[in-house]
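Bug: token stream looks shifted between consecutive jobs. Job 1:
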Amino acid sequence: LPDMACIITLFVAVFLGSCSALNICTTRRQQLIGIASSSSTFWLRSTNAFDNAVPEAAKYADRPKRKGNAPKDIGLRLRDEVDSDVPELKLCAGSPNCFSTTPDEVAPEHVISQWRAPKGTSQTEAWMTLYDVVKTYEPGQAGIDGGGFQIMEANPEKGYLYVVFESLKNGYRDDLEFALGASQDNSAILRLRSSSRVGYLDFGVNAKRLNYFASRLRANDWTAPDITPQSHPTYFIQNAPPSDQVAPSTAFRR
């Protein structure tokens, strides 16, 4: 019955003592409560960490999450703001929480070198290695990404891979893009961009994440240099913790 009809029926039932009318409206009320409960459950689940989050994530399931908005204008494309004749990934903003292989004369502290597969590696072989390394990422490594990760787009034809990572406690989300291409000598090269959605600092998270992938790819003979205080001093100075001694209980800073 429509809600107004249900109210009228209840009114009549009070004066006439109609149990059947009361039962009808009670059933209607239970259905409405059930629908509302289902909607609430779905909303709560949507705020939880990814399925591959570390077990400790359950302790923070009720904490409000600051996921931020998904980035726009991502992917490989020709960009007016970039001094390049080939498609590039998005530039970093001014915050020290982003790295990109896209050339940036204004903010070179965000720029990292392109990674390279071993000479003679085909695009298909490079993609298979990259995809395997990404899909076997270990949430919680180096005390980061305890909320897990999810591959949002994987396009082997375009050589494009887009992954979202989530922090353990506050649900901050970071976006990582990989884009395979070919160099002039036909070697497989990898453009990449790792950036935080929310906040100004990242407490070293993006560097730790990229260094993990660099290490895994170097094990497959790729050229993928680490991000270090020597290569990016400004980033490390700005994101330095209050003390060099970080207790294990505070390893997950975000």
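Job 2, same session, no restart:
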Amino acid sequence: HTHTHTHTHTILEAPPFYMHRDFNPCLWLSDVLLLHFGLTVLLHWGATSPSFWMSSAYHIGVPGQEWGAAERRQWRSERTKSRSYADEVVAALEPLRSSPSFDVVEYGRLDYDGGAIDHRLYAVKSKAWDSKKPAVLVTGGVHGYETSGVHGALRFLTGGEAEKYAALANILVAPCVSPWGYEHIQRWTSEAVDPNRSFASRTDPEACGSQE
């Protein structure tokens, strides 16, 4: 005997939206008309009014034109110092000056406003640098508003983590690459330059500075 089993599946389709019990044709029609009216105004008035499309343009400079000294000066004057590089970064490195494993070195200096602001750039590097070991580079604050990078690098140095790896690798830490950006909580430097888009050519040793 052969038994044939036939299974019938009933597919339930959702009813059209206009058959839903909560559907209100008056409200639906008003929404459609408002959307149509809004798009009409946007496309008609916006197309004939350039100022409409330019309403979100930045208030400094002219869109599409590179900033000059005057624009950078205006932008800088509108920024506010919110924290201290000296108190929060430089001071945190002081205990490391007596470290048996690391040296605190000054690798650069930045001054602004005719010397009114003077930032010395510091890095922490392994004392016993060994070219046979792998090298580890840690940077923080390339963009000054990236606070966690700065304090993460400092914690790596002062919390004992760096000591754990000192015997295994050459360690170089630059905890705050952009001090002005850090103090003013800005992505750019004081000259409105994005450091992470402005690295020197690797084939130009003078531009890159000394390398060890």
